[in-house]
Amino acid sequence: MFRDYFGMDFCFFLNCFFIYSFLGYIFECIVLSLQTRKLVLNRGFAHCPLCIIYGVGAFGVQYVIAPAAHGYLQLFIIGAVSATLLEIITAGVMTRLFGSFWWDYRSRPFNYHGVICLESTVCWGVMAVALVAFLHPVVVHIVDMYYIHYGKWLGMAAMLCYGVDFTYCFYKALGRHRHGKDIRYEEAVFREELFKEEGVFEEDIFKEEV
To answer: Does 139 fall in a domain?
Structure first.
């Protein structure tokens, strides 16, 4: 299935997927470190340095959105709208399961309940164009260089490690929410500090309206 649709076997797909997820984690850390003027490493749902939503988004853009778009302008628009809808859906699911979602745009202009904002929407559109035009061929080339020798083992090992890590963090977060506790205390502290630095004050930064 993966070979027929994505033009690659399952393990090759896993390697590309986790590279995109790692790049997304790096991107998140850089942006938030610049915003808070201190090193931020606590991004992603699990403990691994991965943001898998970027892996999902990258393949969605490359193999679903790009074939339907005629030119970079359409790719920008469809990519921006699709990623924004993905943010809304993800925030809704996380709020229902855990009581909150793990980002907040309330300090950004033109935002809606901290879930989405104009700045991030434009950013997703730009990233969609950059991914199709430049990044995806580079990622595929990188995986090609090592895949024959140990790519299959790396892909399966990464999937196994992340699966265990994700399962542990999922049930831990679900249990904490059921007992009326914040899903991640350090995330709450980080968000509170970010709001204060940007002049936004909230009595309870974990009460989201979606």
So the answer is: yes
Tens of pLDDT, residues 110-123: 888 888 999 999 99
Length of the chain: 210
In a domain, 99, yes or no: yes
- CA-nearest of 8, 23, 193 to 104 is 193
Query: What burial class does residue 152 get, using C-beta atoms within 10 Å of its C-beta: 0-12 exposed, 13-18 middle, 19+ buried?
Result: middle
pTM of structure:
0.76
Tell me, yes or no, whether 205 lies in a domain.
Answer: no
From residue 141, how far is each of 13, 96, 146 by CA, in Å? 13, 40, 9
* In a domain? residue 164: yes
How many domains, the chain?
1
